[in-house]
Each structure stands twice: as structure tokens, then as C-alpha cells.
Amino acid sequence: MEVTNYTFFPTRVVTLQFPDTEPLNAELCDLLERRPELDDRSNIHPDALNLLRLAETVPAIHQLRSMFISGVKHWLNAAGITGQDAIDLLLFSNRSGRGESTIVHNHRTNLIGIYYARTAVSNRQPILPADGEDYFEAGDGVLVLHDPRFNANLTSVCDRDHVRVYPRPGLMLIFPAYVWHSVTPHRGEFHRLSFAMNFTLRWPADSAERHSLA
Ligand SMILES: [Fe+2]
């Protein structure tokens, strides 16, 4: 008898832990503290308020853009994706008060980046794929990545249908935009602050035929 195992369609998640980010994170927190109107946390649509319009006047946003570009290059290189013309970037923040959470959602783009400026303190590894923790355990501002295969838990008979990410300042994640994700309630008295970047890949104009519907 010949038994062959395949693992098709894995989902690539890249994490980057940037060093020495305390000054940057302090600037980012201060920016949102002074200008709370910049926070557009629920806006995941193409017409979102794009914080990158501040990149030329706010050094912290300029630096954050460079870090996100570095992150997405890591993801694309690891996935072997080449040939794109450019990448559209859309940056927005998510500033959470005590008790606030984010329900399950995905983003209408190709890739998502998340960067954490201020979070709860955690001494464990950010990601332990088989941590055995109860799916319904609330935690403190834990990012939950859900298996993109609908009802995958019915087959797996284990708890690997989701991955819990314990964020920390300076941590960035890059993953496909089709990955449904959510955030458990923030428990601290301070404002938890993260930034999300939507990456939309642009391909050479001659790579596809375009037909006008007019
Ligand atoms: Fe999101």
C-alpha cells in the first residue's frame, strides 16, 4: 500500500519584530492622542482615510511606511511573487479603549500588514500554532487568525482551525487579505494602538485585456 500525504494551499504569515521601536511607538501614540480624529479604526474600504497623506510631514508615519514596505517585500519574496508594477498602500489605525474589540472581518485588498505600537504586555511567543488554548478564551487584545477554509474545524477534530497572536510593540504581521481575523477585548486602562496597511498589487497594464462596459 502506498500512502501519500499532501498539504495543499497553506497560508503564509510573516512576522517581523523590529528592534528599538520605543521612540517610534511613543511618537505614534502621541500623534493619535493629540489628533484622535485620525483614528478610522473600522474603515477597511478603498476610500478609507489614508494616514500616508501625513508621511511627508510626520516622520513617524514616514518610518512606518518604510517598515511596512520592508515587511511586504519579505512576504512577496517568500511567496515567490514577482512581476508586479507597484503596490497601492492604504494605512489606517485602530485605537482601542478598555473593553473594545474587533469582530471577525477581512480586508478588500491582496495583503494585510498590522503593526503594534502599544499593547498589553505578554512574555510568551507571539505565535504558538498549537497552543491548546480554548477558542473562546478572551485573553487581552489577542489577534485571532481564522482558518480561511469554511468549517475547517469540522474535519480537523482539533483546535488548529485558528491561530492566536499575542501582540507586542514593534511586532508586524503580513498575511493574505482573505484571512478572517478578529481581536479579543482590550483590558488595559490605556489605549491599545495598532496600524493596518492594505497592500493592493498592481500589474503591468498589458498583462490583461481590458474591456470597456460603457
Ligand atoms: Fe483587520
In short:
This protein is an alpha+beta fold. Helix content is 18%, strand content 26%.
Protein traits:
binds fe (ii) ion, single chain, 18% helix, 214 residues, Jelly Rolls, 3 helices, four-stranded antiparallel beta sheet, five-stranded antiparallel beta sheet, alpha+beta
End-to-end gap: 59 Å
Which ligands are bound?
fe (ii) ion
List the uncertain runs: none
Give me the CATH fold name: Jelly Rolls
Using the coordinates above, name the CATH class.
Mainly Beta
Largest sheet: 5 strands, antiparallel
Q: What is the count of helical runs?
A: 3
CATH architecture: Sandwich
From the alpha-carbon coordinates, what is the Rg to the nearest angstrom?
18 Å
User: On the 0-100 scale, what is the average pLDDT?
Assistant: 90
Principal-axis shape equals: globular
Strand content: 25-35%
Number of strands: 9
Structural class: alpha+beta
Major sheet: arrangement of strands: 1-7-4-9-2
Description:
The chain is α+β, with helices and mostly antiparallel strands. It has one domain: Jelly Rolls, CATH 2.60.120. The protein contains 3 helices and 9 strands, in the order βααββββαββββ. It is globular and about 65 Å long. The protein binds fe (ii) ion. Fe (ii) ion is lined by residues 105, 107, 181, 196.
